[in-house]
């Protein structure tokens, strides 16, 4: 697969066209950012680690019958994916109170939830990804009612697959963010599933292994990512 023109550069990834209009190349960067890019650092090997963890998890989701954009790993830091028509929202699933939910409702991080919570956010760097609900999505024509229902359904199916997978490695999947896009008439999980976009806590100690280490200066970030990979059995 030939790497073509740069289509988009995000904070953690570059997206390239290929000779196949149905395929793109994702390149995972070593850059770590937080707080809308205000905090930024180069973490040697983050791109490689995230590419591998992402491929491993996307393959697990695909094996469980969940449609994903991931096609295959191409190199240490690159993967081929399906070219999607992206829905401009982020879907967040939470199993435990943390992060913005803790702040928004004044709740203590780590508070158990009786059932998982689902939230939509509008993808906009300028606005800081504000929270929206399905009425906004329909009113602004970002997705159809069927697509809204499908995003919620697929997001919870991802939870059903990944919660036990992480638990087997002694980790609690606290929350995560997904993005969706259209491909050949259906919705597909896009973007990435890496420690940059989820929270993972050690089941017994509660130690944070994910990007919160970077956001909150909680210790060696890559050490946490490597530990996640090791516990999943991903060769890094
Ligand atoms: O910040 P908040 O608590 O809303 O984040 C919920 C989950 O979604 C976290 O796992 C976080 O890493 C992820 N997230 C993300 N990208 C964003 C916002 C949140 O990956 N733009």
Automatic annotation (TrEMBL):
What GO terms are given for molecular function? phosphoribosylaminoimidazolesuccinocarboxamide synthase activity
InterPro entries on file = SAICAR_synt/ADE2_N, SAICAR_synt_PurC, SAICAR_synth, SAICAR_synthetase, SAICAR_synthetase_CS
Q: Which Gene3D superfamilies match?
A: ATP-grasp fold, B domain, Phosphorylase Kinase, domain 1
List the EC numbers from the record. 6.3.2.6
Pathway entry: Purine metabolism; IMP biosynthesis via de novo pathway; 5-amino-1-(5-phospho-D-ribosyl)imidazole-4-carboxamide from 5-amino-1-(5-phospho-D-ribosyl)imidazole-4-carboxylate: step 1/2
Q: Which UniProt keywords apply?
A: ATP-binding, Ligase, Nucleotide-binding, Purine biosynthesis
Source organism's superkingdom? Bacteria
Please report the stretch or stretches of sequence annotated as the SAICAR synthetase/ADE2 N-terminal domain. 6-231
Report which reactions are catalysed by this protein.
5-amino-1-(5-phospho-D-ribosyl)imidazole-4-carboxylate + L-aspartate + ATP = (2S)-2-[5-amino-1-(5-phospho-beta-D-ribosyl)imidazole-4-carboxamido]succinate + ADP + phosphate + 2 H(+)
Leading EC class? ligase
Q: Specify one Pfam family.
A: SAICAR_synt
| Family that this chain belongs to | Belongs to the SAICAR synthetase family.
Q: Which NCBIfam families match?
A: purC
Please name the HAMAP family in this protein's record.
SAICAR_synth
Record's protein name? Phosphoribosylaminoimidazole-succinocarboxamide synthase
